Amino acid sequence: MLIITIVASSCNFFTLDSLKAVLALSAVLALSAVLALSAVLFFVGFLFWLAERKHNPEEFSRSPRGIGSGFWFSAVTMTTVGYGDKAPRTAAGKVIALVWMFAAIIIISTFTGMIASSLTEGRLADAIAGPDDLPAATVGSTRHSATDEWLTDAGIVFTGFPDVQSGLDALRQGRIDAFVYDKPLLRYLSRKEVGDELRMLPGTFGRQDYGIALGQGSPLREPVDIALLKEIEGSRWRDEIRKTLGKRN
């Protein structure tokens, strides 16, 4: 059985539309991050104010203005700017400041990772998602193969390569946007050689069946059938598939 699928580049299919989508996503993420951080800063600043307002009124006054000073101090501490214009004097304030220093590092790292991950996912979502996107992309496949026939019948112009490895190399180098070929082989290569810069798309298309041809009334038919059934129903076959191809999509 031949099942055709697509391997696409994670970095070289980037159009004006996808750029607009990424910019829009960036604005939403930035606004969400600012609002969330502002809420955290206000809460921490309020704790600073509660700890310092009685013993350090010069820097954290008891008026609402002192809460603003706490907010300012928490922001300066989180960004490691350290202007030095305000500092906790009480033991409680120093403990809060120490905890906040370490927490701020984790928070900033988490927000940075979330934004970077979301931008990457948004960019990939606007790239090649399936066969319908192939006509607008630069496609590659192997010459004189079943995939060659499928792409030709579908009216998809593609660049022919002598072998799969040549096509994947071209994909890495950005000379094509997607490489279309037999799914089991691409899945195997994706586990062994492809790497993070390429991704195999989920789903399959262009299914074709393989078979073993035997002559009419051949005495080999029954023993071949029995041998195949024993092989594919055994645990060794399933273990080998998982080892070679990984989990099925």
Automatic annotation (TrEMBL):
Keyword Repressor attributed: no
Spans through the membrane: 22-51, 63-83, 95-116
Gene3D superfamilies: 1.10.287.70, Periplasmic binding protein-like II
Stored InterPro entries: Ionotropic_Glu_rcpt, K_chnl_dom
GO CC terms of this entry: membrane
Pfam families according to UniProt: Ion_trans_2
Signal peptide: none
Record keywords: Membrane, Transmembrane, Transmembrane helix
Annotated ranges, domain Potassium channel: 37-120
GO MF annotation, one: ligand-gated monoatomic ion channel activity
Stated name of the protein: Potassium channel domain-containing protein
Lineage, highest ranks first: Bacteria, Pseudomonadati, Pseudomonadota, Alphaproteobacteria, Sphingomonadales
